[in-house]
Amino acid sequence: MQPFQSAAVLGAGVMGAQIAAHLANAGLTVHLLDIAPKDGPKNAIVAGAFKRATKMKPAPFANAEAKQRVTIGNFDEHFDRIADVDWVIEVVIERMDIKQALMERIEATVGEHTVISSNTSGLPIAEIAAGRSDSFKRRFLGTHFFNPPRYLKLLEVIPTDDTDESVTERVSWFGRVHLGKGVVIAKDRPNFIGNRIGVYSIARVMQEFTEGRYTIEEIDKLTGTLIGRAKSATFRTADVVGLDTLRHVIANLYDAVPEDESRETFLVPGILQKLVDAGKLGSKTKSGFYYKDRSTGKILSIDPNTLEYREAPAIDLPSLDAVQDAGGLEDRVRALYADDGRAGQFFRATMLDTMAYAARRIPEIADRPVDVDNAVKWGFGYRMGPFETWDAVGFDTVVSDMHEAGIEVPEWVDRMSEKGIGSFYVEDNGARKGYVPVRGRHEHIDVPSDELSLAVLKSDEKRTIWENDEAGLIDLGNGVALYEFRSKSNSLGTNVMAGLFEVIDLVENSADWRGLVIGNEGRNFSVGANLGEVAMGVMMGQFDQIEKMIAKFQEAVLRIRYAAKPVVVCTHGMALGGGCEMTLASPHPVASMESYIGLVELGVGLIPAGTGTAHMAAWAGETASTDFPSDVQTKLRQAFEQIAMAKVATSAQEAQDFGYLPPEAVIVMNADRRFHVAKQEVVRLSEEGYAPPPRRTSVHVLGRPGRAQFEAALYQFRAGNFISDYDRHLASRLAHVLTGGDLTGPAHVDESYLVDLEREVFLSLLGEQKTMERIQHILTTNKPLRN
User: Which residues of 323-332 are buried (b: 16+ CB within 10 A; e: fewer)?
Assistant: First the structure.
């Protein structure tokens, strides 16, 4: 379909500014407009909002370049800028009269080709367009982003009865492909799907606190990672969202759904109203349900009776350890549901109610359980939606318990029981089917052809070409294979790296294969080498074995770069240490936008030695504006600072700025599309007549004069007490390798010289006590040590 190339966002509040930022991340030219104040500079409101957006954490903008694609303005002077844009998104105050007046003005300004949408979450979409022309109504719909728009996957698209189907399809396609969203088509009902169910769940959980049955800390223990939800769980999430925002959404729902049989759940909890009235709005005011005592560093929680903060009372959930040890997510959910203690009582009370409420909202807000599950998962960061949770516990068990508890069960669910249909989801030859109540049967859940699932592919045993204990080779089709890590946390241990040699040999030596993709479906691409293996080798004094292991690691990474057929590293999530070095080695990587790439080895007392330091030394010479040592030094300084400070790029675009991805790297906004795009990249390279990059036989290094500049800077940092003595030592050893060792001046060296040098320094650091202290600390606490 035709992509949008320009957009205007009207309203520069928290959501408007962030939506504009994400559109800019996708490469659009964006106009961000807001009202002009009565006094002072007319751009004061929008300028302030834009400035706040540039300082937000996590960052709405992918990199500095994206900020340059946003032009700010005001409604008084610059409204005519929207005349020729492809897409106008309205994000102004939630008042119908204001929105309708703005729509009238938009219609009088834009052309016939412009798509117009509203980001409202609480007002009827069709009513916003009341009084507009038929042409306007055909191009108008709702597009409800979730906060923060860059990071939360859900985009609810809400067409009206007048919206042209092609407009709905275009916006949905663009949202999925270019904005990286999971798109759900929602009905024009109050708060649509995600917030209707998600906010109900939050309000229901809060009742357990306000009625005194569970503490804040107990509820956050029971509603976080234990059941596949965000670590921030319920009350920390509320603080992050903003208690005033949460209060508004809950109150709005109460007013908007007078016919809802569970409307009373949307009464604003008294404690929430009191906190808002007291100005305790959560993270933005540094106090909400939680407060961090700066003098002690302790996290305190609110006492609902006194509104004072207190230390957390003891958590009375004695069976929680057994639930946590039950296994994977579905196993934990089943164990928690079956638990006889307070933990199980809480879970059954809140989840039975929420699951039944979600079922009763069909077909009011959606026709299919899968749309409800996706909206809740993508909008709130859950791993399982209410119907998936229902299936995990057991369909018949849940229905029986609902009836026993006197919870209203909709007729369509009882009909499923009567027909002996025992789940909302079934598998059919590797494809997933979901129950459709209006048709009374399971139907295939459409998955776009450009979203490849390794789990689905692996369900066909014929697609597994090769495997060992920690890796496997999968046939993606069209002569492209994928090497998948299967080790714990996708760490790059001996089996993974040995497997890499085997599969590259296999692909290179068979006419059946065009090339190789390296990727996986873990939470992260890879957080690096297996430090446990290294630490164990040091403890046993096996330095010769460690040296061979590091040399093999280096050789494997170089095989990626110089393979005779294209090897496309396909990153997502964190790609740290050795994972970053694999990415550096790939001449044609494909990266999900949300790839966080960095060389972080100094944090554990080492330097990058999977060719990472050698690569960055070569990169400095290759990308310097001239061959003069001063220009090479400028680039080398950037590489040195990034590695010495263990800086991690916060997006794929920023990784390009860091030199961790090449300028021509393919960046995929939707991570679900990354394997398809990587596969197509291998095919393209093969069709063009692939040849690997030439060997680096003349890397420009600066020798001792270049290192002296780094040593002088390190002296000043130590004198100012910004770094420890050992930090200085580590950075000095890094500089030694980056500048080519003990060469007396600038020279050109072979890549192998630098690879040997980084391995030599790496091994020497393994012999130092402070490095081993750092390694042991990260292995036992998962936190870095400064010593």
Answer: beebeebbeb
Residues 6 or more apart whose CB falls under 8 angstroms from that of 235 comprise 209, 216, 219, 220, 288, 289, 290, 301
Give the separation between CA 255 and CA 244, rounded to whole angstroms: 17
Two tokens, residue 652: 């794929």
pTM for the model: 0.94
Q: Residue 352 in contact with residue 398, Cβ under 8 Å?
A: yes
* Cβ neighbour number for residue 437 with a 10 Å cutoff: 19
Q: CA-CA distances (angstroms) from residue 434 to 390, 428, 442, 495? A: 13, 10, 5, 38
pLDDT greater than 80 at residue 721: yes
Q: Which among 118, 266, 255 has a CA at the least distance from the CA of 186?
A: 118
Summarised one tens digit per residue, pLDDT across range 108-166 is: 999 999 999 999 988 999 999 999 999 999 999 999 999 899 999 999 999 999 999 99
3-state helix, strand, coil in the chain (%, to 5): 50, 15, 35
Q: Once rounded to an integer, what is the mean pLDDT over residues 543-572?
A: 96
Looking at residue 634, what DSSP letter applies? H
Q: Is residue 749 over pLDDT 90?
A: yes
Distance CA 605, CA 207 (A): 48
Query: What are 95-113's pLDDT values in tens digits?
Result: 999 999 999 999 999 999 9
602, 758 in Cβ contact below 8 A?
A: no
Give the rounded distance of the alpha carbon of 279 from its chain centre.
31
Question: Which amino acid does the sequence have at 58?
Answer: P
H-helix segments, 26-110: 44-55, 64-67, 75-78, 96-109
pLDDT at 121: 86
pLDDT of residue 430: 76
- H/E stretch holding 758 reads helix 751-766
- Cα gap 12→6, rounded to integer Å: 17
CB 490 within 8 A of CB 520: yes
What average pLDDT score do residues 488-516 get?
95
Q: Which two tokens stand for residue 98?
A: 């204001």
Helix (H, G, I), strand (E, B) or coil at 132: coil
> Which H/E stretch holds residue 621?
helix 612-623
**What is the distance between the terminal CA atoms of the chain, rounded to a whole angstrom?**
56
Q: What are phi and psi of 570, to 5 degrees?
A: -120, 100
Residues 6+ apart with CB under 8 A from 714: 723, 728, 731, 732, 735
The count of residues in the chain is 787
The letter for the amino acid at 705 is: P
Distance, CA of 11 to CA of 17 (rounded, Å) = 8
657 has pLDDT over 90: yes
Give the rounded distance of the alpha carbon of 415 from its chain centre: 39
